[in-house]
Amino acid sequence: MNEKKIVGELAADFIEDGMVVGLGTGSTVYFTIMKLGALVEAGLSIQGIPTSVQTAELAKKLHIPLANMDEVKKIDIAIDGADEVDSHLNLIKGGGGALVREKIVAKAAEKFIVVADPSKMVKTLGAFPLPVEVVPFGAMQTENYIRELQGETKLRLTNGKPFQTDNGNFIIDCSFPSITKPQELECILNNIPGVVDNGLFVGMADRVITIDTGHKPVLL
Ligand code: 5RP
Predict the structure, then answer these.
(1) 86 in a known ligand binding site
(2) What is the b/e burial string over 80-107, where b = at least 16 CB atoms within 10 angstroms of the residue's CB?
(3) Rounded CA separation 66/10 (Å)
(4) pLDDT tens for residues 78-127?
(5) Nearest 5°: phi and psi at 107?
(6) What residues does substrate bind to (predicted)?
C-alpha cells in the first residue's frame, strides 16, 4: 500500500464544508488534493489556495474552486508535505521548489497540517539538503555567503539549466552537517542579501499525520 496515499488521504478528514484550504505541493499532498476533488464532486464546498502552479493545475482539473491569497479573509487550514520532520515538528520543505509560497500560506493558515510518510520522520534535521530560494541577480555571490556557514551548496538544475521557481528565482540546495538550531539557521540564512527564504519551517506545524509500521495512522 502506498504510504503517501494513506497519509495524504487522511488529511482530507480535517476539511469541513465552507473552509478555505491552503493546498500544498508534492507527491504526498497530491493524494489529499485528489480526495478533496472527489469530495467536491460529491458536494463539498471549499475554496483552495494553491502553493504552486503545479497544484493550481491539478486543482483546476478536479474542479476545486480556487482563490488568491489576497482575495480571502482567512485560510482555515493548510495541508502540505515535508522532506523532513524532526521530533519538535520542525520541518525541511522545498524539495519541490515551492517553499516560498508554501511558507506564506502555512503562516497565514489558522491550522497547518503536515502529511509525512515514515521515511520523512527524523530525530534531527539536515540529512535532506536544505533548499534556499535566491534571486537570480548575484546568485553565485549569494551561494558563496551560504557556503561560509559551513554548508555544501549546489545550484539546483533542470536539463542543465538553473531550476526556476514559480517566482522566477533559483534554488540552492545546502547540506549542513546537522541542523541542531533550526530557528537560528533560518534567521541567519534569511539575513543574507539575495536570499528570498529557506525551507526551514520552525514551530509552524500544528499537527503531523504519519503512519506506523503497521500502516496505522499516527497523529503528532
Ligand atoms: C515542495 C515541498 C514538498 O512538500 C516536499 O518536497 C515533500 O514532497 P513529497 O510529498 O513529494 O515527498 O516542500 O516544495
Answers:
(1) no
(2) bbbbbbbeebbbbbbbbbbbbbbbbbbe
(3) 22
(4) 999 999 999 999 999 999 999 999 999 999 999 999 999 999 999 999 99
(5) -65, -35
(6) 25-28, 80-83, 93-96, 120
Q: How far is CA 35 from CA 42, 106, 199, in A?
A: 11, 20, 26
Q: How many CB atoms are closer than 10 A to CB 67?
A: 13
Question: Helix axis angle, 29-41 relative to 53-61, nearest 10°?
Answer: 30
pLDDT digits (tens, 9 = 90+) for 163-211: 999 999 999 999 998 999 999 999 999 999 999 999 999 999 999 999 9
C-alpha grid cell for residue 49?
489556495
Does residue 99 have its Cβ closer than 6 Å to ligand 1?
A: yes
Tell me how crowded residue 45 is: count the other CB atoms within 10 A of its CB.
11
pTM score, two decimals? 0.95
**Contact between 79 and 115 (Cβ < 8 Å):** yes
- Is residue 186 within 6 Å of ligand 1 at its C-beta? no
Query: Ligand 1: does its nearest atom lie under 6 Å from the Cβ of 131?
Result: no
Q: Which entry of 41, 57, 71, 102 is annotated as an active-site residue?
A: 102
The complex's ipTM works out to 0.98
